[in-house]
Amino acid sequence: MSKVTAAARYARDLVPEEVVESDLVRRLYRPVGRRLGRPVPPPPKVLRTLDELDEMFARLDVAGSESDDALRREFLTFRMEVDFPLPPDPYSSEYRQAVFELYGWLHGSPYSTANEDVTFNTATAVDTPFPFSTQSATTVGEHLMGIGHIVRRMNLPPGSRVLEMGAGWGNTTLVLAQMGHKVTALDISPKFTDLIQKRAGQINAHVETIVGDFSKIHDLEGQFDAILFFESFHHCPDHLDLLAGLDRVVAPGGQVMFAAEPIDKSFPVPWGLRLDGESLWAIRRHGWLELGFQRNYFVRTLDRYGWQLDWARLRRCIWGEIYLARRR
User: Fold this and answer.
1) Do residues 301 and 217 both lie within one domain?
2) What is the signed CA dihedral for 186, 179, 151, 137, rounded to 10 degrees?
3) Which pTM was predicted?
4) pLDDT tens figures, 169-206
5) 80 and 172, same domain (yes or no)
6) 289: nearest Cα among 120, 125, 102
7) Beta-ladder partners of 324
8) 74: domain range?
9) In sequence order, what are the residues at sequence separation of 6 or more whose Cβ sits closer than 8 angstroms to the Cβ of residue 274?
10) Does residue 40 lie within any of the structural domains?
């Protein structure tokens, strides 16, 4: 690395994250990148019909058969724009209904939480769960960086009681359990909770597992020092109901962490379906719910329920964005 390059990177790290990630800086970088001979990816192709989308999926199948990295690169090549106006009040039942009407059009049938269940070989996943199953240095490396970022930012006292909602493969669950925390993992899929128990048994860690959807927040007993959503909150079909239930189960002085969630100041609507390539693939092909949130809406909504947010980001890591909520 040249001294000029090293100095430039050092200077970049001194600039606030909001400036580095601003639309203005991104627009300025494109012509600069061309002058420096750096690869500048073309803008994603805009699709407008389901036929166009299904044609694109044929390319995804080919890329996926090559590697996980190739599939993820192909996700970046397209997005969708649809003429589907939303009512003005994002807190209204009419707004929510419109969001799920768009989902029904994209997926081909109405949303059901049963769509969030997954199919995988448990025996294989015990040894090589996601992200290790991808065999991608980028995906595995950034996922582990994201978990480390979560643990560091939570900064929990030893023996804390933690609830992970939508725990999935259980990677973060097991890290927290190995640290000696009393961890409860909730997931809608019994296959995931079974996998977590089997993985915990391999390392002699104790984890309580609960099968249930996000509405289970109203039935949980006791309180937790921390509640964690790691790339799961955006699958909740009624996020307002979920947020309303948090206060009851968070202990005084406790925290709620939203990690790697699609909360973006440039998101075009207060909340709704994401129409990037990967989200479209997840919605139409698998039936998963893929919501996004405008940052101002998210902050305002948490404030309505009595929570104050702090924001932190691990640069150049797709799992590195964190919103930490504490009672106002």
Assistant:
1) yes
2) -90
3) 0.88
4) 999 999 999 999 999 999 999 999 999 999 999 999 99
5) no
6) 102
7) 257, 310
8) 45-110
9) 234, 262, 267, 290, 291, 292
10) no
